[in-house]
Amino acid sequence: MPPLELLILKTLARTANHGFGITLHIQEASAGLLSIEEGSLYPALHRLERDGFLSSEWSITPNARRAKFYKLTAAGKKRLAAAEQAWLQTAKGMAKLLRFA
Question: To 10 degrees, what angle do helices 38-50 and 3-14 make?
Answer without folding.
Answer: 70
